[in-house]
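User: I'm new to structure prediction. If I give you an amino acid sequence, what do you actually give back? Let's try with this one:
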Amino acid sequence: MDTNIALLAVGTPERLSAAARSTVEKGPCFISVVSYWEVILKAMKGSLDVGDPRQWWSETLDGLELRVLPLRPEHIAAIYHLPAIHQDPFDRALIAQAIVEGLTLLTTDGTIPRYESDRFRTLA
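Assistant: Good question. You get back a string of structure tokens that encode the predicted 3D arrangement of the chain. For your 124 residues, that looks like this:
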């Protein structure tokens, strides 16, 4: 799942589509350390209020029964091959991870589905 899906799933799950909510509830779902990084940076800048982002991470993992997806060198390498459709480096990293790992990316971002191919799928 992308960062916004995680934020919605713990804060306002009713704002998720029925398909996304069902997927999160059924599990297993993965959340990338990239999302944790994004939440930390936005919380430090004051553009995101989740309280202590370290506590948010722990509670999100436990509350949604998520599996952590680490950032590996092959994920970074896959970013190189992505077309310049989306400029957000966090989203580009999540897309690359999903491609390498063969995962469907849960997202609310309307631009990300433009990357869909036989190797990458999204669910909104």
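You can read the tokens as a compact description of the fold. Here is one thing that stands out. The chain is about 50% helix and 10% strand.
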